[in-house]
Amino acid sequence: MPVTLPETSDLLQSFGAALGLGLLVGLQREWVQNRIAGIRTFALVSVFGALSGLLGMIYGGWVVAAAFLAFACLVVLGHLAEMKQSEPDSGLTTEMAMLVMFATGILTVSGQRLLAVIIAGSVLVLLQSKKPLHGMVRRIGEDDLREIARLVLAGLVILPALPNREMGYLGVLNPFAIWLMVVLIVGLSLSAYLAQKFLGSSKGAALAGLFGGLISSTATTASLARRSHDAGACGLCLAAIAIIASAVVFLRVMVEVMIAAPQQWTRMLPPLLAMMFAFGLIAALTHRLSEKRGRHTADQAPPSELKNAVMFGLLYAVVLVIVAAARQHFGHSGLYAAAAISGLTDMDAITLSTSRLVNTGHLEADIAWRMILVGGLANVLFKMGLASALGARAFIRPVLTGMVAALACGALILLLWP
Q1: Distance CA 349, CA 119 (A)
Q2: Domain residue spans in the chain?
Q3: pTM of the model
Q4: What is the pLDDT of residues 352-406, one digit of tens each?
Q5: In whole angstroms, what is the distance from residue 173 CA to residue 318 CA?
């Protein structure tokens, strides 16, 4: 049976792409003065892959397999020759890059030039990122690695196995959606923690408050309140971190709304944005006043644990049912009471649950953002109680001042927003 080959112009473009991609990756290897392969070798490897792919189209796949085997033997021989040199590089990075580029060359003649470009670009970035990646690995501790593994377990093992359909009381429980929100919260918290760790903790109150809000503003406030009793502690500086963290919570809330209610977020975000802007002004003023007093940062441990994730999932499901039942049996007053109670210690559950109900048509968007804001104000009240119970006087006064001002702004938004 005759084989239909691509047109000559298309083949020339494919071989040109293979040559260009090989030169691109080879340039990086040449720059690091690799002894096995440089810019010419990688270009030849990619062209050889493209030629093998073309011959495979004509004579069958065995040609590609034979070419790959022969090429692999050459790579092994090159590695053995390098090992005989003084101070050999025990890694296999260049050899693996050559194998990948051989396969990428095959892709270019198989009608997958865009995929080949993406793969080659990724290889280049990976090769060039050796020092940052190695530095990152050295800074990741055993506890960090364990939390990353738990996130992978939650997101890549458990999540795909859950049924993706509505079930349970009032039809608001979706196991897949519930656990997806668990993965989202754990991922956000862990990402913020790792970013704080890699950027360092010497960036001042603004950065400490930013990451504190992304991880847990409630835990951050409690930690800062306890630290305010330390000898030489700057109460106003620590209060600035706590207020910044509380303001950043509303940024996190808006991100969660956009993810959980992609069809309705334009109706829900403006009042929440106004609240974040008002809280942000208060936080900026407090931070400005604290800059003359010194700098303090909030140390954080890895924030996510699988047990805590499961507890959050259960809380999220309970809030879904409570909100749905309150709407059905008690009207708006029941909804706001449920929002205030669930928002006392954590904003994620009420935000994600109400956004999910809006997205599925079980709740109006105008009521949902008010519920989220009520939960946020309840959360601010709870943190004021934490600060008063755990903090020193120099910490309590600025925290209460800033958060009372934020509560007033939130109340005005609730009353005056159309």
Answers
A1: 39
A2: 8-128, 141-416
A3: 0.59
A4: 888 888 888 888 889 999 999 999 999 999 889 888 988 899 899 999 999 999 9
A5: 9
